C-alpha cells in the first residue's frame, strides 16, 4: 500500500464558544478516510488535543488502524489547552476544574454533535488523556455518567482526590477504562509536588476492580513521556473501536 495514504488527513479547526470558560476554546477535528456525512461515527475526545496530534501522532495511527486492520473509522476531536491553566482545568479541586468539566460536557458535546455526524450516546464517545488529562477524563465519566462510559488513560494522575471519589462509588460495571502506566514512573514532578504515579495507579486499579469496573490495566517499562504512550495508543484505540 502507498505509504502516502497514512499521512493524508482532513482536519477541521474550530473555535468553540464557552460561557463556562469565558472564552473560546480551539479544537481540531480529524475526519476519517472516506468520510461521509450520512454515516454516524464513534468520536474520540482528546484532552491536550495539540499533543495528541503532534506527539501522539493519533491521525497517522488511526489511518494505519483503518487501512491495515479494518478498525471502525472514528472522528477525533482534539481539545487544545493553555499550558498556563492546564493544571487549574484538569486537576480536581483546582480553580477552573468545574468550569472546564461543565464546558466539556455541556458546551463542547452539543457543538460537535450539531456539526458532525457523531454518535450521541455514551457508548459512542471515548474520552482520552495523558497524565492530568487522564484524570479529568475519568472524573468526567464519574460526574457525567449518562454522557461518558469509555475512558482511555495514559499514565493518569490518579492521586488522592481521584482515589477518594472512586472509593465512594459502589458499582462501576458501566465504566470501560483503559489504564496504561510505566514502571519507571516513580517520581513524577507536578505543580503540586512529586508523586509515585506507578503506586497511585496500582492503588486506583484495586479500587476500580473492587467496584466491577471493566478495566484493561497495562503496566510495562516506560517513562512519563509521549514516546512511551504513542507506542501503546493503537492497542488502546482498538479496545474501544
UniProtKB/TrEMBL annotation:
Pfam families: Esterase. Keywords: Hydrolase. It comes from the Bacteria. GO terms for molecular function: hydrolase activity. This is Alpha/beta hydrolase-fold protein.
Amino acid at each position: 500500500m502507498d505509504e502516502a495514504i497514512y499521512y493524508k488527513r482532513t482536519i477541521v479547526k474550530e473555535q468553540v464558544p464557552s460561557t463556562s470558560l469565558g472564552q473560546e476554546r480551539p479544537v481540531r477535528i480529524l475526519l476519517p478516510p472516506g468520510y461521509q456525512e450520512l454515516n454516524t461515527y464513534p468520536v474520540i475526545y482528546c484532552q491536550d488535543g495539540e499533543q495528541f496530534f503532534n506527539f501522539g501522532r493519533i491521525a497517522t495511527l488511526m489511518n494505519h488502524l483503518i487501512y491495515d486492520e479494518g478498525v471502525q473509522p472514528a472522528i477525533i476531536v482534539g481539545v487544545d489547552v493553555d499550558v498556563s491553566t492546564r493544571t487549574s482545568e484538569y486537576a480536581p479541586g483546582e480553580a477552573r476544574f468545574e468550569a472546564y468539566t461543565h464546558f466539556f460536557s455541556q458546551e463542547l458535546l452539543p457543538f460537535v454533535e450539531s456539526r458532525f455526524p457523531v454518535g450521541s450516546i455514551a457508548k459512542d464517545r471515548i474520552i482520552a488523556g495523558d497524565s492530568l488529562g487522564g484524570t479529568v477524563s475519568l472524573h468526567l465519566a464519574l460526574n457525567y455518567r449518562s454522557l461518558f462510559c469509555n475512558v482511555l488513560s495514559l499514565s493518569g494522575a490518579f492521586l488522592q482526590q481521584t482515589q477518594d471519589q472512586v472509593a465512594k462509588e459502589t458499582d462501576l460495571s458501566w465504566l470501560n477504562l483503559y489504564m496504561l502506566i510505566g514502571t519507571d514512573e516513580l517520581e513524577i514532578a507536578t505543580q503540586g509536588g512529586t508523586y509515585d504515579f506507578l503506586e497511585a495507579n496500582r492503588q486506583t486499579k484495586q479500587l476500580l476492580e473492587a467496584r466491577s469496573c471493566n478495566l484493561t490495566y497495562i503496566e510495562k517499562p516506560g517513562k512519563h513521556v509521549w514516546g512511551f504512550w504513542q507506542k501503546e495508543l493503537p492497542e488502546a484505540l482498538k479496545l474501544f473501536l
